[in-house]
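Handout, section B. The chain below has 291 residues.
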Amino acid sequence: MYINNGTNETVEDMVQMNSSISQYNYALVAIYSVSLIGGVVGVIFMTVFLYNSSTKLSVTTTSIINLVLVHSVFLISVPFRIEYFATNEWKHPFFLCKWVSIFIHTHLYISFIFYIAILVVRFLSFFGKDMHFYRPLHAFFASCLVWVVVFVSIFPPLFIQYGKHGNYSTNKCFEFGKEMENPFVALLNYVIIITVLLTVFALLVCQLVILVKVVMKNKTNLLSRQEFRAQLKNLNFLMVMIICFFPYHIFRIYYIQHSQGNDHTNHYNEICLAITSLCCFDLLTFIARGR
């Protein structure tokens, strides 16, 4: 039996499509719920840990403080995502949809910047170059510089451009695939993808080189060596970056080319984007491993 809507879609086809969409929504609700719970717990524990800590204000400590802040701001937007994917309807003003959508991208790249800072500082410390802020005011200004640069370069362009190149329903959200029809937007996405992948690859190579040096220096009882265990912490941290960020950026290449009018592609892109939110568990990793 065919539906009288001028198309060749059968009732069975539409039921199968709705069932498939529901499966995507269940996965998204589950991922964001896990991120919300783990993120909130991590923020609370890390805030208490930092408050009671008497360690010197290093670049690493400053980066962790900023991660607490960026995770906290992002987690405010997560309930809106959970509500939308649970009901499949956007019940708030459309401009809020744009803000929530921008938050997750801003969270991703600000977190990425501070991850790089932490790893670079740890690599330098391996060669005996410890980096510390001699005054809290210096740490404050350095953090402000990162936030200002990111917000000025990301927020205004995204807010102005988001939803500009297509007619979007106000009761639907996070479906901005038509923006990729703009050559500049597509090119910018390619540049970001290449930058992220090459940066992580370069950090991974540096970490492996350092690990080889440590192994060659301490050939026996490696796990009992503090130097070796410290490098394993860095390697685990790199794996978090790979697991959380690589799926989204790798699939993004395919998404840019096939996003127009393809619901399944949009849903897979949303799942990969949701996986980036799992990096909120990094705070629990820091606490478990003593930073």
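Note. The two ends are 62 Å apart (CA to CA). Compare this with the example in section A.
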